[in-house]
Amino acid sequence: MRPESVPAGRPNERSRAEITAAAVAIADRDGLDAITMRRLASSLATGPASLYRYVANRDELIDLMVDAVAAEYELGGPSGDWLADLVAFAGQARTIMRRHPWVVPLVIGQPSIGPHSLDLIEHILAVLGDHPAPTGAKLQAFAMLNGVVALFVQNELAGERRRNGQTIAQWQAAQAAYLHHIAAQGRHPRLARAMTPDPAAVAATDDALDLLTARIMEGLLGGAAAATDRD
User: What pTM does this model have?
Assistant: First the structure.
């Protein structure tokens, strides 16, 4: 991503930030495929050629959009509990990715690095500042954290589309009724036992990401710390 420059000649009529915000609004409304220089220029009441004074091409524009989304995180100082901080970060990431669904496949397959994205990395390294794992393991944990949240959100959004207006509780009730019917036929005894209500089970689906994040981060960073201690 190139730094913003001030071209010679007449002053800029707009800023990169203004252009990026307009592009994010289009993508939020109509998806990433709707981002074209012509469409963006039309929304800004200007010509497509004028946008190339600010961005080199569509790829650079998308990098700027991703970095603008990264600016939405609220990054406080480390609490002293690295795992709680990572779980809280994952919760923020989920909220932001749901607000901007188009960013999910980019996080999974085409991560970009910009000023605000670097702020996120710096924040995670600060959270893990006293953790004994090597820096490489911490960076891998950050990449894994982003990927896990993106896949979680992707699955959530796909599930919402499949439910076609049903609430989670309604959809789960319909699925449970079918599974109980199948299990009652006796062909799946292990499934029948698994479906027996467990009072100790975590019932709140909103806790699923927290639990998933904690287990993965403990597995990654706990193992990395143990390996460091052995060296």
Answer: 0.82
Residue bearing tokens 């989670």? 168
Q: Are 161 and 148 in contact (CB under 8 A)?
A: no
The fourth-level CATH superfamily of domain 16-70 is Homeodomain-like (1.10.10.60)
What superfamily does domain 82-230 belong to in CATH? Tetracycline Repressor, domain 2 (1.10.357.10)
- Separation CA 203–CA 168 (nearest Å): 12
pLDDT tens-digit series, residues 58-82: 999 999 999 999 999 999 999 999 9
Q: In degrees, to the nearest 5, what angle opens at C-alpha 31 toward C-alphas 30 and 33?
A: 110
- DSSP type of residue 221: H
- Closest by CA position to 20, among listed 64, 84, 59, 85: 64
| 226 three-class SS | helix
